[in-house]
Amino acid sequence: MSAFDHDQGGGGVNRRKVLECMTWAGTGVLWTITGGVPRSLGIVDTVAAAEAPGMTFLQISDSHVGFDKAANPNALGTLEEAVAKINAMPAKPSFMIHTGDITHLSKAAEFDDAERIISQTKLDVHYVPGEHDFIDEEVKLYRERYGRGTKGHGWYSFDAGGVHFVGLVNVVDLKAGGLGNLGAEQLEWLEDDLKGKSKSTPIVLFAHIPLWTVYPQWGWGTEDGARALDYVKGFGSVTVLNGHIHQVMQKVEGNVTFHTARSTAFPQPAPGTAPSPGPMKVEDAKLRSLLGIASINFRQGEQRLAIIDTPLQG
Amino acid sequence: MKTLNRRDFGLASALALAAAALPARFARADDMEVHIDNFVFQPAELAVKVGTTVTWTNRDDIPHTVVSAGKFRSKTLDTDDKFSFTFTAAGDYKYFCSLHPHMTGIIRVE
């Protein structure tokens, strides 16, 4: 239950206690976490999930349909397991977001397979593309399937349960030596999109590559992400959901909570702990403990959204 | 070709054209390899003579590309896929992976 209790009485005192910080020391990561943080739990808290009031939506990410290398020879199979997990949830979520890398190589058959499996959740799914979804020759398959009603390369916003959701694209026009990229046109649109929104409206930004700088040596960050975050500064509750790095990471800065979801396909190493960010081969028995989904609960009046990460197994 | 000097540039260009037409016969001595391992182009910097064909091989489990703005652009290279480009003009060719832009390299053609 603790995931839902963290911000009770949620005033300034709690917020001042939010001292979570993330320090990069050499090649390692140091975490310090205190209260007031939407917590990621390593277990399925089915009781809490069943009783949670308010709106709950899901995040899945990095399904890499088509991936068949040593780190997981059957990425489609583990996506199916994730969907089974979703269908077994005691309370049906309102909808789902997919934070990109639906496919591994942007092949039509991969998109078709992903759709066939994910549609079995019978949930509305709001997608943003990963770099792996834009590598077909004509760069059209993603947009044909998921681009309807979106702007530019596929960005959009919508409202649900009193929360304003913004799906952003940061995998296009990447510059040599740089990180993820939103671009001037999208940033302008974002500024406009948020204009006129009440500052008490909870905001959820989601995109494939982390909008915050996780580990630039591996390209884990967004070049102009800080500009997007500038536009949400005045809002009381901001949650930034990303994928791309195939592991759970979170931090809180002021009113902004950053969170990355696990992949359903294969794990990647913690920053700096391997020669490269490539797929991490672990023993078969351990794989499903490193794959999973995230469930995000929003309760009216709570400043922060509660995020529960659930591995496929363990 | 190893001892090529400035005065031989015209000859080199001619050979490059010939190499493009008959790659198996003439280009072999100039073939150079760049491997992609662990999200790194190796070697990241390579000096070659005009007329050289450079072949990139992706040895990662993740797709990569080889892109030099306005000069050349590979298709997406899956594991063990290759991309070749023959350099027919001198200059510095900076390139990167458009999927993982922190991966950069340069071919210096002289």
Mean pLDDT across all amino acids of chain A:
86
Any idea what the CATH superfamily of chain A is called? Metallo-dependent phosphatases
Helicity level of chain B: 10-25%
Query: Which regions of chain A contain 5 or more consecutive residues with pLDDT less than 50?
Result: 1-52
The CATH class assignment of chain B is Mainly Beta
Total number of beta strands of chain B: 9
CATH class term of chain A: Alpha Beta
**Largest interface pair:** A-B, 25 and 23 residues
Assigned CATH architecture of chain B: Sandwich
Cα-based radius of gyration of chain B, to the nearest Å: 14 Å
Number of helices of chain A: 9
Report the span from N to C terminus of chain B: 11 Å
Main-sheet strand order of chain A equals 6-7-8-9-11-10
The SS-based structural class of chain B is alpha/beta
Q: In this structure, how is the largest beta sheet of chain B organized?
A: 4 strands, mixed
Overview of this protein structure:
The complex is a heterodimer of chains A (314) and B (110). With 314 residues, chain A is α/β, with parallel strands linked by helices. In chain A, 22% of the residues lie in helices and 20% in strands. Chain A has one domain: Metallo-dependent phosphatases (Purple Acid Phosphatase, chain A, domain 2). Chain A has nine helices and 13 strands. In chain A, strands 6-7-8-9-11-10 form a six-stranded mixed beta sheet, with no helix packed on it. In chain A, helix 4 (75-87) packs parallel to helix 5 (108-118). The radius of gyration of chain A is 18 Å and the shape is globular. Chain A starts with a helix and ends with a strand. Mean pLDDT of chain A is 86; it is low at 1-52. Chain B is α/β, with parallel strands linked by helices and 110 residues long. Chain B has a single domain, classed as Sandwich (Immunoglobulin-like). Chain B is 15% helix and 36% strand. The chains are: A alpha/beta (314), B alpha/beta (110).
